[in-house]
Amino acid sequence: MPSSIPQLKYTAPVFVLLSIAGFYFIVLHMVLSHAPDRFLEVHEASMVPLSVTPKLPISILDKLFTPLVSFFVAAFGDVGRTSSSYPITLDFVWSFGAAIQLPLVEASRPGASSKWLLTIPMAWGILYQRVSGGWVLPLWLLVWMQSRSRAEGAVIEKLNAESILAGWWIGHTLPAMAMLIPGMPSFTSAPIWIAFPILMSLGQQAYLALARFVPSISNGKNGSGYIATQLVYLSSLSLSAIAHAHVVIIPGLAATDVPSTMSDSNAFYNKLTGLLGHIYAHYVPPSFAIPSPQTTTAITGVQHFVQFDVLIVFTAVWIAGLWDLALRRRQHRTSVGEIRWLVRSALLLLSIGLVFGPGAPTAGLFAYREKMLEDDRHRPEPDHTEKDDENLIITIESPPRSPRSPHTPSFKRKMSPYHDQ
């Protein structure tokens, strides 16, 4: 059952405001704090060439991707991935994957062409990779909220869904694994992962091309792609949770020392408060003011960028996901207690995000949405001939008249003297 499309006067202020916040706290803060200059200094001191195409210099590619290379070299380009910014960047990459896969998935949903901006996930990817997701993704979410394809929620065909899964692993997941493995030597070339928006689209198109030559792939290509779509979400959910446990939860528990003389209840309380403090410092920037250029380093610049990107991106994605589900609940006449449901759902997302990272609940949220869409497709259409109690019209008909008995008195209307005879 399709949901409704909310009025632009409600969606535009929310997502435009989040986009403006992304521009201010990420792009403007980076420029005014001179953080990109600090990234470039680390890049120049490394073994990574300043050109992303050293053998065949292409200026437009260098202008597009060299700042990204500088950022990731500054983040964890040292030997052994021991930089203090490595944990927050690793957690960011895997969590962020749950958000950046949404344009790839929704571009293949039937009806996406009604909003042509939804059909160019590679262009959106290049934009948010180059200037930050916090600035760009809220704008994509605004277009998505106003789209007919979101409202109708049609199933993605099997072949297209499989190509999304292939593109996701070929273009994002495998290159990220190669870049993020702990203990690796320092970078000597630009990590290929930085081009993941292009690689994901190329991987998707390669799978579709392969299907034309391999009959076993193309068999049933027009069937339901529900399982393959869920595998896309499951991939990001599991990888985000594993990465979060590795670089946030385990170190946070290990960082809190508990005296051996302390009781078990107090020891548990100390561990829990220590872990929550570690998580808070991991995600919340120490200041919302523009960092001073004099005190900004490459590491603090990376941390500032990542923390604000995570806060804004996942706030926008969770708002859009819950908004969509609320509209669908309303279509099923389950909007009773809607505010309470929204509050409980938001708290659930936040709680799961603290334990498993923001990427896991995001993937879970959209996997649940896909399950709801699948249930709707198999739900029988309501019988509109039946009316509910509110619309039931009861007609009381008088019994048929019987022939007048000769004993029945006759009541004649008294005629007015002014009545025309």
Automatic annotation (TrEMBL):
The chain crosses the membrane at residues 12-32, 125-144, 165-184, 190-210, 231-254, 305-326, 347-368. Residues 376-421 are annotated as: Disordered. Residues 376-387 have a biased composition (Basic and acidic residues). Keywords: Membrane, Transmembrane, Transmembrane helix. Residues 410-421 have a biased composition (Basic residues). This is Uncharacterized protein. It comes from Hermanssonia centrifuga.
